[in-house]
Amino acid sequence: MKCFSRYLPYIFRPPNTILSSSCHTEADIISTVEFNHTGELLATGDKGGRVVIFQREQESKNQVHRRGEYNVYSTFQSHEPEFDYLKSLEIEEKINKIRWLPQQNAAYFLLSTNDKTVKLWKVSERDKRPEGYNLKDEEGRLRDPATITTLRVPVLRPMDLMVEATPRRVFANAHTYHINSISVNSDYETYMSADDLRINLWNFEITNQSFNIVDIKPTNMEELTEVITAAEFHPHHCNTFVYSSSKGTIRLCDMRASALCDRHTKFFEEPEDPSNRSFFSEIISSISDVKFSHSGRYIMTRDYLTVKVWDLNMENRPIETYQVHDYLRSKLCSLYENDCIFDKFECVWNGSDSVIMTGSYNNFFRMFDRNTKRDVTLEASRENSKPRAILKPRKVCVGGKRRKDEISVDSLDFSKKILHTAWHPSENIIAVAATNNLYIFQDKVN
C-alpha cells in the first residue's frame, strides 16, 4: 500500500450526512456500517431503527474523479420499538449489526438485527409497471366481472426507477439476552446470531426454529464470570467459527465435533503481565470485536487499548499487538467514571489483510500497516472535510512541551468517538461513522 509511505492515504469525498451535527437526535446516531461483497453498496444502521443504503457512482468519461462517491440509494425502517410484556422490558429499535449476503440475482439481500429480532431484507429495483389488467382498473380497484367483455394482454410500461425494500424473513423469539453479533456462513444457507450467553444457528429458510450451538449460561447465575462479546464464522470453512469473551479470551469451535460446541477446539489467551495489573485490567481486557482475516489464517481482536492479531496455529499469544491509544492508560479512572471505558470499538481489515483500521476518541481513527509496522492517526471532522483535501496525520501529546500540530491528551473530546468503520473489500475506500455523520475517504487519485 504505497500511499502509506506518505502518511497521506486518503482524499476526502463529501460526507453523506444523515443530519447536520448541530441538530441531530439520539435516533440519528449511526450504530453499524457495512460494505456489500462488491463494495458497490454501503449500508448504515442507526439508533432509530433505520437502514440507509448508499450506492457508488458509476464512472463516466467526463467525471472520472466521481468514481468514489456514494449517494443515497434506499432508506427504510428496519425495526420499530417493541415492548416485552412478560418481562416488562422495552426493546430498542437500534440496529446492532448489518450483514450482506452475496448477490445471486438482480436483487440485494441483507440481514439486520436489533437486540432481539433478526430480519432478512430484499432490496430490488423497479423501472417498469404493468398496465392493462383485466380484473382491475387503472387505479387498481377490482372491476365488476359482468362489465368485462374483452380480454386484454397486460403490457409493461417504463416508469421512474423505484428502489423497494421488503422484509422476506423475520427470525424472532430465540434470544433471551441482547444480540451483539450476526455472521453469514460461507455455505450461504445458514447464519448465526450471538447474545451475551448463547449462540444460535439459523437456516435462512426456517424462521421458527434455530439450533443452539453455544450456551455458557451457568446453572446458578451468581456463578457467571464472563459473557460472549462477538462471534464470526470462518470465511471459507462452514464448520468453523470463533467467539470472544469479556475475559479477553477467544474460542475457536468446530461444529463437526458435536452439536453443542461447549468444548472449544482452540483457546486463545495472552497471559497478563503482572506489572500492568490494575483495578481496570479486567474491564480493558474485554474484547469488543473479533474478525477473521479474508484469507482465514488470522484472527483480529479489539480490546479497549489495543488491536491484536492471532495466528490460528498459535494459541498462547498474539503475533502482533498494536497500541491504539496507550496515552489513555493514565486516564482510566476518569474514563471509568464517565462510562467511556465500556465503549465497544470495532476493527476491520483491508482487502489484502495488510492494513488494520480501528477507531478512537476525538473523531480519530487509527491505521496500522502490518508490513511496514507504520501507523497513522487521522481525523474525521467537518472542519477538515473540504472536497479532495488530503487528510493530515494527527498526533497526541502526552506530556511536556506540545508542538504546534499536536493535540494534548487533556483536550481530547470523549463524546466524539469512532466506534464503527468499514473497508471496501477490494479498494482503498473506507467508511467512518462519527456520531450521526458518515464520512467516506478514498485513496489518492492522480
TrEMBL record:
<dbReference type="InterPro" id="IPR000009">
    <property type="entry name" value="PP2A_PR55"/>
</dbReference>
<dbReference type="GO" id="GO:0019888">
    <property type="term" value="F:protein phosphatase regulator activity"/>
</dbReference>
<keyword id="KW-0853">WD repeat</keyword>
<protein>
    <recommendedName>
        <fullName>Serine/threonine-protein phosphatase 2A 55 kDa regulatory subunit B</fullName>
    </recommendedName>
</protein>
<comment type="similarity">
    <text>Belongs to the phosphatase 2A regulatory subunit B family.</text>
</comment>
<keyword id="KW-0677">Repeat</keyword>
<dbReference type="GO" id="GO:0000159">
    <property type="term" value="C:protein phosphatase type 2A complex"/>
</dbReference>
<dbReference type="InterPro" id="IPR018067">
    <property type="entry name" value="PP2A_PR55_CS"/>
</dbReference>
<dbReference type="InterPro" id="IPR015943">
    <property type="entry name" value="WD40/YVTN_repeat-like_dom_sf"/>
</dbReference>
<dbReference type="InterPro" id="IPR036322">
    <property type="entry name" value="WD40_repeat_dom_sf"/>
</dbReference>
<dbReference type="InterPro" id="IPR001680">
    <property type="entry name" value="WD40_rpt"/>
</dbReference>
<dbReference type="Pfam" id="PF00400">
    <property type="entry name" value="WD40"/>
</dbReference>
